[in-house]
Amino acid sequence: MPKDGGIGAPTRRREDVRFLTGTGQYCDDMNMFGQTAAVFARSTVANGVIKSIDTSAAEAMPGVLAVFTGEDFVEVGGNPAGWLINSRDGTPMHEPKRPVLAHGKVRHVGDAYAAVIAETIEQAKDAVEAIEADIEELPAIVNMKDALAADHFVHDEIGTNQCFDWGWIEDNRAATDAAIKGAHHVTTLELVNNRLVPNAMEPRCSMAQYNRANDEYVLHTTSQNPHLTRLLISAFVLGIPENKLTVIAPDVGGGFGSKIYHYGEEALVLAAAKKIGRPVKWTADRTEAFLTDAHGRDHVTKIELALDKDGNFLAFRTETMANVGAYLSNFSTATPTFLHGTLMAGNYTVPNVYVNVKAVFTNTAPVDAYRGAGRPEATFSLERVIDKAAREIGMDPIELRRKNFIKPDQYPFASAAGLEYDSGNYDALMDQMEKVADMAGFEARRKASEKKGKLRGFGVNAYIEACGIAPSNLVGVLGSRVGLYDAATVRVNATGNLSVMVGAHSHGQGHETAFPQVVAEMLGIDPQSIDIVHGDTSKIPFGMGTYGSRSLAVCGSAVVRATEKIINKAKKIAAHMLEASDGDIELKDGVFSVAGTDKSVTFGEVALKAYIPHEFPLEDIEPGLEETAFYDPANFTYPSGAYCCEVEVDPDTGKVTVESMTAVDDFGNVINPMIVTGQVHGGLGQGIGQALLENTTYDENGQLLSASYMDYVMPRADDLPFYTVDHSQGNACTHNPLGVKGCGEAGAIGSPPTVVNAVIDALQSGGKNVTHIDMPMTPHRVWSAMQNA
Amino acid sequence: MYAFDIERPATVAEAVAALSNEDAQALGGGQTLIPTLKQRLASPEKLVSLTGVAEMKGISSAGGILTVGGGTTHDDVAADGSYKALSELAANIGDPAVRSRGTIGGSIANNDPSACYPAAALGSGATIVTNEREIAADDYFVGMFETALGEGEIITAVKFPIPEKANYQKFVQPASRFALVGVFVAKTADGVRVAVTGASNEGVHRWSAAEEALSKDFSAGALDGLTVSADDLIADLHGSAEYRAHLVSVMTKRAVAAAS
To answer: In angstroms, how far is CA A60 from the centroid of its own chain?
Structure first.
C-alpha cells in the first residue's frame, strides 16, 4: 500500500477541507457578469385548468426582462421517462408529456406555469405577483385508491390515472398463487411505505449562459449526472446540440436521488439566457424544494408469505400501488418495478415470488428514486411480513430467517425474483451481528428499561440490494432507454502527477479521496499526486453519474481498466528506456524495473519520456500517457446485511427512542473504511428518520401540510443513537475488478424495518397485541395503536 | 421580503412614538416576524426594533418577585437561575440561535398557542407590564395569537411571583420543537396553578380541576382519574385532540413530580 493510503486505508476525505471551511463552490456561490434572476409562478392548487395567463402587468414592472409561460414551450419536447414499462397485458405504460412549464392544466401544488426574468430576485418576485393567472380549481386526486376509481384524471388525454399494471414475473403468477393456496400457514400484512421529501442540504440551483458568437450554452446545475442531464436537454427537450451545451455540476450539497433528474427549471434558464442574451440564475428556496423536488417511496402494499409446517418459505406475493405523482420523473417507472420487484425474494431460497405493481398518477409532486430506490420498499415489505410470520408461528425471528437463508455454497444463486446473486454469506452476517450487538445482554437491558417504566424491544432485519447499476444489456431488455456503464480517463501529466476524469459525480460520497486510493494502489505512487475531475461535460468522458451505489462498482471499475491501460503503455515506454522486453518489466512502488536486474526507471521518468518523446519508438508507441475506459458491469452487485436495534417506548406518551443500532454489512472489498462507515451512518439517519419522523402529508385538496421544517421532521442528532457499524464480513463481488459492492444506500434500506420490528417487539413485551404500525411511528401513532390493542 | 423602513429607538418613549404610525410594527427578537417577512406573508411599512431599548433588558429580583425586561433574551433568562423552573423552560426554547435572539416580550406579545413562555406567565400568575399599564396574566391571554395588548402597546417587563415549587414539562412537536403539549405547574401559598400550552384552539389556558385537586394534595397521585376533554383541542398531523388531552394529564403529573 502507498504510504499515504491505498486500498483499505481509512484516509480522511480531502474534499472535507473545503466543505468544512466554507470554501466549496456550489452553484449559487457562482455569479456571472450581467447575471439576472429567474423566479417561477407556481400553482397554489393541486389540480386546475389554466383559463388564461395575463403577463402584461408583470412585463411592465421595474427590472423585468422577460416573462415566459407554457405557451412558449409548446413546440419543444417533454422531459421523458427513462424506462419503458409494459403492463401485464403487454400494453406500454402511459407516458403523458411533462412540459417545461405547465400548459393547459396545473397538476400539483408548486407546478410552475410561468417564469419571470428580472435584474434582481426581488424584482422578479414582485413581477410574479403581478401575473394574472385565471386557474379554475378542480377536485384534487390525492389518494391512490381513489385515483384508480376516479372518473376524472390527472392527465385527461390518457383517460386513466393508472400509468401501468406490472407483473413480475408474470409466468410465476400461477405457481405462486397455488403455493399460497396450499400452504400450511399464510401471513398477510398491509403496509405503507411513507412518502419522503429528499431535503438535500443545498436546494436545486441552475444558472445558464449563452454566447451568441458561437451559439454555445453553459449550464451550471445541481446534478448527480451532468452528462445525462445534457443528453435529456439535447435529445428530448430543447434540442440544443450536445456539442453546443456544456453542463457543469460543481460542488453539490447532497442529492439522495433528487438531483439525478432533469427538471424544467434547467430548460427554462437555458431558453431565457438565449432570449435575453445574459446569464440567468434560479435558486430554489426551501419551500420550492419541498413542493417540487422529486419525492421518494410512497407505496401502499399488501404482502403475503406462505410457509410450510416447518417454517420454510414457499412464496411471497405482493400487490403494490406506487405513487408516481403528477408527472413521470426520469426514473420513476424503474423504481417501483425493476428496482423493487426483482428484490422480492430477499436473502431467501423461497421458490415462488410474484409482484404486482400499479403505478398511479396523483395531483402530488412527482415521486422517483430516493436513497435505496425500490429496494427499501422491497426490504421493508419482506422483513416486516417475516417478523409477523415468526410471531404467528411461534418461531424466533432470527431462526426463521436463518432457516430460509441462501447458504454460502449456493452461489451463484438464481433468485425466484429473477436475479443472479454472485456472493454472500447471510449466516455469517447474522453471527457477527449477534456478537457485536451483545444480544446476550438484551434481557438485562430490557429489565433495566422496565424498571424505568419503559418498554424495550429488539428488532432484526436481513437485507439484500442490487447495486452497481447496471448491466446495459440486461436493463435494455427490461425497458431502460439508457445504458448504465460508466467511464474514466486517466491522464498522466508530463511531470508525473495524474488527473483522473470520471463520469461519476461526487456530492458527498468522497470520490475525490477514494478513487485516488485505487489508482495509487495500482501504480504504487502517492495518492496526493492524483486528482479527480468530475462534474463537467467538457472535461469528463460520457459517464452516467452517481446513484444506486454505483460509483465505485461501475465508475471505479472504469478507473481500474483505464489505469491498467496506462500501466501497459508505461511498461512499453519503460522497456524502451531500459532496453528490455516489455514482458520483463515489473511495476512496484512506482518504479519500473527489469525482472532479475537492478535496472529501473521511476514512474515519473516514464511520464516525462511519454511527453518529451526524444529517441522514442514512434512506430510502436504513440507519445503521451492518457487512457480512457468504459466499463459496463456483467451483473448487479449484491450488498447484504444483518441489522438489529433496540428501542425504548414510553407507554405514557408513545414516544420511541432508538437506544442502539447495529449494522453489519457485506460490501465486498472496502477501499476506504472511514468513508464507508460515514455512508452507513448517513443512511441509518435517513432510515431512522423514515421509520420514526418523516411524515409527508397532503390533505384532501392536495396541499402539502408538511411543507416546511416547522412540520416536516428531519432527524436531528439527539434523535439518533451511537451506531455500531461493522463491515468485516465482506465477500468480494465476483465480477468487477475491485470486488466492491457499494455502500451508499444500505443504511437507508436496512434500518426502517429493523426499527419497526423493534417497536412491535417492545409493545408485545408490554402485553399489547399490536402487530403493525405504519411509518413514521410518531408518538401519536404508537400511543393510538396501544389504545386500540 | 418586501422593502420596509426600520427605526431603532433607544428608549421606550421613542419606541412608543415610532409605533404611533399605524403601518409600523414592533420587532423584538424577530423569531416569528422575520421568517414571516421572508415568506412575504407580511408587509409592514416600518419596523420598530426594540433590541436597542436598554430599559427593557435585564432581570432583577426583589420581594419574591422576579422582573424580566421585555427585551431580555431566552439565553439570559436561562442563565439567571433565580426562578429555576422559568430558567429551565427558557433553556429549552428552540435552539441556540433562537435563544440568543428571541425575547420574552416578543413571545408573550405573539402568544403562539404552542409557545412555552405563555404557560410560564399564566402558570406563575405573572403580571405583564406595558408602557401603559400592568395586566394580570389571567386577563392578558385572550386566545390563539390574541392578547389584551392595544395598538402600539409594548411589553416592557414581565413580573413573576416566585412560587414555592414549580416545573414545566414540554412534550415537543418533533419538527418545530414547540410544545405539542406543555404544562406549567406552580405551587404557591395561595394554591396551585396549572397552565397548559400547545393543546387548545383557545391558546394557553388553566386546568382548574387539576388546580383544585393539587391545591388539596400536591402529588401526581392527586391527578389520578382526572381527564381533560378533547373538545376544542388542536388536532393536526402531529396529534389528535384525544392524544393532546391525554398528554395534558401525563405532562401535568410529570410536572408535579418534578416540581422543586
So the answer is: 43
- Looking at the complex, does the CB of residue A653 fall below 8 Å from at least one CB of chain B? yes
- Dig out the grid coordinates for B181 from the structure: 403539549
Confidence (pLDDT) at B50? 96
Mean pLDDT computed over B219-226:
96
> Is residue A410 within 8 Å of A784, Cβ to Cβ?
no
Distance from CA of B159 to the nearest CA of A (A): 31
Q: What is the C-alpha to C-alpha distance for residues A495 and A326, in angstroms, rounded to an integer? A: 54
**What's the rounded Cα separation, in Å, for the pair A171 and A189?**
24
The fold of the A16-22+485-631 domain, in CATH, is Aldehyde Oxidoreductase; domain 4 (3.30.365)
Question: How many Å apart are CA A489 and CA A510, to the nearest integer?
Answer: 18
C-alpha cell at A130: 403581478
- What's the pLDDT score for residue A606? 98
Tell me whether residues A711 and B247 touch, CB distance under 8 A. Answer: no
Residue whose cell numbers read 428496482: A339
CA pair distance A318, A304, nearest whole angstrom: 6
Model ipTM value: 0.96
Q: In CATH terms, is domain A425-465+636-789 a member of 3.30.365.10?
A: yes
Domain parsing of chain A, residue ranges: 16-22+485-631, 425-465+636-789
The residues, any chain, with a CB within 8 Å of residue A395's CB and separated by 6 or more, are A311, A403
Cβ of B246 and A695 within 8 Å? no
Integer Cα distance of A461 and B144 in angstroms: 46
Strands A205-211 and A216-221, bridge-based pairing: antiparallel
Domain pair A16-22+485-631 / A425-465+636-789, same fold: yes
Chain A, residues 84-123, CB within 8 A of chain B, namely 122
Interchain contact B11–A (C-beta under 8 A): no
Yes or no, beta carbons of A652 and B250 under 8 Å apart: yes
E-only strand ranges, A566-666: 585-588, 591-594, 600-602, 626-631, 640-649, 656-666
- Domain of B20, in residue numbers: 5-49
Which residue positions in chain A have pLDDT lower than 70? 1-4
- What is the least distance, in Å, from the CA of A690 to any CA of chain B? 13
B1 touches chain A (CB under 8 A): yes
> pTM of the prediction?
0.97
Chain A nearest CA to B103, separation (Å): 20
